[in-house]
Amino acid sequence: MEMRNAYAGTMESGDIFIQISPSDEEGLQINLESSVEYQFGGQIRKVISETLNSLGIEQAIVKAVDKGALDCTIRARATTAAVRATGKDVWA
Question: Nearest to residue 16, comparing CAs of 62, 53, 57, 68?
């Protein structure tokens, strides 16, 4: 799948900034910055990974800066970044 750099989200409280970039390496490389990484880092990575995999993105570099986002917000931001990166409209 062809992909370009794309992002979604903000650095506001309760949100998450997600940037997706093409990668030559297999799998998703998720780099997470979060003040609650110790408690919720695994869950945040899982939501990002599951969301991107469901959209057919299995190889990418993902930078995520979490500011206390809920799972629904993480899914929304990951989906938006994926649509912007691939041009594939999942809402049509």
Answer: 68
